[in-house]
Design a protein that fits this description.
Strand content: 25-35%
Order of helices and strands: HHHEHEHEEHEEEHHEHEHEEEHEEHE
CATH class of the largest domain: Alpha Beta
CATH topology of the largest domain: Alpha-Beta Plaits
Number of helices: 12
Helix content: 40-55%
Shape: globular
Distance between the termini: 46 Å
Radius of gyration: 23 Å
Oligomer: single chain
CATH superfamily of the largest domain: ACT domain
């Protein structure tokens, strides 16, 4: 079969795909109207998971599951936009890791709204300026983003979804490497690139300057002579910088988990996680007793971490991630037992694993 014939076959397939996608879009509009009448949220993480799982099961190749997920991410993003443009608050500016997480989670049709800090992300969602927010909760190198955990504890918002993004740190500037006299980035990024900076831009020759966000670093490097930034690779394209070195982080496997926050959490999918926070009445063996309800109900804990309560010295919050959904009977039983044993308990949200 010659090239011209093969391309005609592709054109016929494309015609069918366009017709099918538009039919899907029309049905999505009807779904949106029903959800609106029921005052249900536009974004449904449990349905998103259902669609991705079904497409993965249908896929027999040669396209990869990841390729299909990327395609359907944009299909669903476009469908949601037909119901109502979805607005998402994120930390930093365009090109930040939070921006990347927002785009990967909600697609190109979502309206991404920059926020200057984690509190502002929460504020925009709490005051209905945005439908959802996306905030970093845990880094594989640095651990829990404690500021997010603290704000989440005091907020009425719920965790409804999560996404993990691979983090790479890249040196960029307008001039050559040997002309750099300052390197800008946020403190966590500078710390994660410590060894590379010592070997290539030693502090006795190149000043390390901390800024609030990597996007701020990129903006400064654009205009300040002899300056550079360590930032996500997209910042070079967005701000017109030259990438001098890629992947300069000391630990190669670096990723950040982000929470999607909104007015309510997700409905059960059959493969979920639940995040909780509690404080305890101090007595010998109390933490062991607090964990007993989970063991008794056969619930796996994937994370447990303590944080000091700022309002009272030497008292602590305990943050726990567990396997299961808050609506599952065994999780309900464990949480009910735990609630009677502690001073404070809050379910931060249940969401697809």
């Amino acid at each position: 079969m010659d090239l011209k014939t093969l391309r005609r076959k592709i054109d016929r397939i494309d015609t069918g795909i366009v017709e099918a996608l538009n039919e899907r879009a029309r049905i999505s509009v009807e779904v949106g109207q029903i959800k609106s009448a029921q005052k249900a949220g536009i974004y449904a993480p449990e349905r998103e998971r259902e669609v991705f799982s079904r497409i993965k099961a249908l896929n027999k190749g040669p396209m990869t599951d990841a390729a299909f997920e990327a395609v359907y991410r944009e299909i669903m993003s476009s469908s949601i936009a037909l119901e109502k443009p979805l607005s998402v608050a994120y930390l930093g500016g365009e090109g930040s890791n939070s921006y990347t997480a927002a785009r990967r989670k909600f697609g190109a049709q979502a309206i991404c709204v920059a926020a200057s800090g984690i509190e502002e992300v929460f504020h925009k969602v709490e005051h209905e300026e945005c439908d959802h927010g996306i905030v970093p909760i845990e880094n594989s190198v640095e651990g829990t983003v404690t500021h997010t955990a603290d704000v989440l504890t005091d907020s009425s918002l719920q965790v409804c979804a999560q996404i993990t993004v691979k983090i790479t740190h890249n040196l960029m500037a307008n001039g050559p490497l040997d002309r750099i006299r300052k390197v800008y980035s946020n403190p966590q990024v500078l710390g994660q690139c410590r060894n590379w900076l010592l070997a290539n831009l030693p502090p006795d020759k190149v000043a390390q300057v901390s800024v609030a966000a990597t996007t701020d670093a990129a903006r400064i490097a654009v205009t300040e002579k002899g300056s550079s930034a360590i930032a996500p690779i997209d910042c070079a394209r967005i701000y017109g910088l030259k990438v001098l070195k890629t992947n300069i982080q000391d630990i190669a496997h670096n990723s950040t988990r982000f929470f999607v926050i909104g007015p309510s959490d997700s409905r059960p999918t059959g493969n979920d996680r639940t995040s909780i926070v509690f404080s305890i009445k101090d007595r010998p063996g109390v933490l062991y007793a607090m964990l007993a309800p989970f063991a008794k109900n056969g619930i796996n804990l994937t994370k447990i971490e303590s944080r000091p309560i700022k309002k009272k010295a030497w008292d602590y919050y305990f943050f726990v991630d567990l396997v299961g959904h808050r609506e599952e009977t065994k999780v309900k039983n464990a949480l009910k037992k735990l609630e009677g044993m502690c001073k404070f308990l809050k379910v931060l949200g249940s969401y697809p694993a």
